Amino acid sequence: MRRAARPCEAHREIYKKLVLGFFKVFLLPQKTSAYGKEKKSPSGGLLKELNKQQLMCFISSPSLSLATFRDKLLAPILVERVSGTYGNYIVRQHIVSILRSSGWHIDLDTFYSTTPDGIVEFTNIIATLDPTRKRRLVLACHYDSKKLVNFIGATDSAVSCAILLDIAISLKQQLDNLKSRADDITLQLIFFDGEEAIRDWTSTDSLYGSRHLAMRMSNTIIQGQRSLTELQAIDMMVLLDLIGAETLQFQNYFQQTTGSYYNRLRTIDYELMKLTNDRSWPLFTSSVTPSYIMDDHVPFLQLGVPILHLISYPFPGVWHTSHDNEENLDYPTVQHMRNIMKVFVVEYLHLKQINCQETSIFHLIL
Ligand SMILES: [Zn+2]
């Protein structure tokens, strides 16, 4: 995503945000905004909230241990994976093979784009539990890494992508139940390629994958539907980015459309924190603020998709440096975030409650 601020620059950034906010709100016509605005009223379903006892299930009997999460899901992504390179291909294979073997429908959106370094091949990965359904909860991350020497991008955005894979694996039984349940809703996981600028961030050198996919989805009718496009079928896109550092903090950027979901995440965060002692302060702050961070949600936001942007702000101190590696991840934070996201997905999709005693079948997949 576009650089917003390092922690040490936070004050300067806040000032800049205020100035930009003034120009955006009072001087610029809305359609010239580069950031889009909230257009669609919330179409998401009601959450089926878990009680404290049910939340405890996620803590007391995790279906996928932290060690397995690290070794089997995250570690293969912790390599240089610049768009159009072999590393990018290998990571794509890792993501696709895990999801295919878990029964997901995989759509690879491959295209070529001109960049400052010539023509590059990009491939978005779209995994859908049931592509014929009319409503989708979308969870998204970007799997490419920035073209910098020795840059792994653990928080940017390997952890986010591993959390998406974790949801597919850890909740497999419940998601399989959803597939066989008569319902309109399904889950879709999007792994964007080409989020990073090849050189310096501009409107054309950045967000290659999300710009391409948003257009493609707005022109693609869902199988079996007369006129409903893939884009219109998105209830909400939850975009995860810059996750994994101890300093992780989220803010509520889209109060009008997804604010109620942000607030529920905040409550889940708080309740799980009380149960686990994994962290001593919450990830979801009470701050409600306009969004000025450019990221993969922007092309979708501009086409009216409700967005929940889960990005750390301020950015992690290791952002776009060679120190953004596994050594600087904070695993209690990662573990906490894994649990929060799983609870949210269970609640949103009304998945069958986990039986704490049930043996997971994840070992058959990994
Ligand atoms: Zn980045």
From TrEMBL:
Molecular function terms, GO-annotated: glutaminyl-peptide cyclotransferase activity; zinc ion binding
Reaction catalysed by this enzyme: N-terminal L-glutaminyl-[peptide] = N-terminal 5-oxo-L-prolyl-[peptide] + NH4(+)
The protein's Enzyme Commission number: 2.3.2.5
Signal peptide positions on this chain: none
Annotated InterPro entries: M28_QC, Peptidase_M28, QC/QCL
Keywords from the UniProt entry: Acyltransferase, Disulfide bond, Metal-binding, Secreted, Transferase, Zinc
Gene Ontology cellular component terms for the protein in this record: extracellular region
Source species, domain of life: Eukaryota
Top-level class of the enzyme under EC nomenclature: transferase
Residue ranges of domain Peptidase M28 in the record: 124-343
Subcellular location: Secreted
Name by which UniProt lists this protein: Glutaminyl-peptide cyclotransferase
Organism from which the protein derives: Didymodactylos carnosus
